[in-house]
Amino acid sequence: MGGGGSNPDPQSSYAEFRVQNSVWGKGWLDKTQEWLKGKGKDDSVPSNLWRIHDGLYDLEEFASRHPGGESWIRITRGSDITEAFEASHVHPDVPEGLLKKYRVGEATWPRRSPFTFHPQGFYRTLKRRVGERLGKENGPTWKSRLFQDLLLAAFLLAFLRAAVTGARLWAVVTGTWLAFPVIYAHNFFHMRDNARMYAFDLSGFSSREWRISHVLSHHMFPNTILDAEITMSYPLLDYLPRASKGFLLKYLSRFYINFLFPFFMPLDLVRRYLNVAVGIQPLHPENILPLAELAILAFFRGFVEGLSLWMWIHASCSVAFLISLTASHHHEDIFHDGDRPSPDRDWGVGQLQAIGDRKEVMGIPWLAGITFGDHILHHLFPTVDAFRLPALYPVLEETCREFRVQFNLFSFPELAMGMYRQMGRTVTNPNIPICNCK
Ligand code: HEM
């Protein structure tokens, strides 16, 4: 990207990826794997190794013993996993101790990522304090498990009611409600492998793919060209400020996107089944969930009416989910690649600059958990359970004061309106309010 010294440069394969994997691009079918390939290419890490900071590691043998799950290590082979490693381990002592055993060399070329993790910098300091505050525990709480189970039980009841009555209104209620356990499942897929994360696959999206496009891409590099959630809807939608935006993106996207939101989830599901059909990826058990829903609806209402109800459910879920998700990051006062980044390239500061939290749900874990709230803390510590986040605000506030960093708070309407304005933004912002770093 151009202005303000942001990284990476437009010649990188991330930029190439942006075109290839966009809605019309040839890599779209397998977009998450393509993103990983693009990242591996840019990181220039040998294909059998992993890079963390300036060390090269052979984690092949470790992968199956990784307490967080094997897949994280396997899918990132041949790339720089510094951000993922730092953000996933609130208590870094054991992971860092283990790393020494697997070190096989030194990376002599600079990292492509602009972000830093200085031991006395903002993020590392905050992480030490958060680790002390949490004690040994950071995984799912019983409250969180119970909450997710109740959300799912309510979905099931509404779903059966829609199936039995065939009422379209119930289908819309069911679909809108489905967005809640689906959003809350995202609390679980950031953690070590667990059954509740598969509630995400009741929608048209896939937890397996979102661990790449959301956890490894969006979370680590929000609102940059490395953020797959930014690039994947291009050229229908472009959240980055770009002078080259044409009439459609500049003026019309904020209107037509509302008509497209309902189709995002169902179309993503079709893309996944196409993927399976042409043999790009196997059919994983959780991929069958949306088909099982269709089968149940068809059993009660016949195929045509069942399919229609299924579409209403998934279209409603898609709208509720996407409005909630996108309205946490997009506003003209939130950093987007091209805007002037904070002079301190600390990863945590970069995160604060690219996120807007909603005042209304802050510190209320059940409400925040189903609306992508407490978003700043969640981004900084993605493996920490939603019900543990509110206790961390005093630590965040204290550390922000000390480092003279501020975090962005908006009301829900401010963020929603800002999101629409951001879609048409063409001018980069040199004054993103964030910090007067030391
Ligand atoms: C792509 C990179 C990585 C990702 C995304 C990742 C992710 C995770 C996740 C989600 C957890 C569970 C956290 C929790 O439930 O609290 C975890 C735990 C753990 N990971 Fe990783 N990890 C990565 C790389 C590594 C590496 C390279 C090592 C060491 C060589 C490592 C060592 C550990 C250990 C020891 C734990 C258990 C920590 C504890 O229980 O406090 N991880 N990891």
Q: Major β-sheet, in short?
A: 3 strands, antiparallel
Oligomer: single chain
**Small molecules (ligands, ions, cofactors) in the structure:** protoporphyrin IX containing FE
Strand sequence of the main sheet, in spatial order?
1-2-3
Q: Calculate the terminal CA-CA distance, rounded to whole Å.
A: 26 Å
| Percent of residues in beta strands | under 5%
Order of helices and strands: HHEEHHHHEHHHHHHHHHEHHHEH
Q: Which class best fits the helix and strand makeup?
A: mainly alpha
The residue-averaged pLDDT reads: 90
Query: Approximately how much helix is present in the residues?
Result: 40-55%
Number of helices: 19
Unreliable runs, pLDDT <50, ≥5 residues? 1-16
- Overall radius of gyration: 21 Å
- Could you say how many structural domains there are in total? 2
General form: globular
How many β-strand stretches?
Answer: 5
Protein name: Cytochrome b5 heme-binding domain-containing protein
Keywords: Membrane, Transmembrane, Transmembrane helix
GO biological process, one term: lipid metabolic process
Organism: Darwinula stevensoni
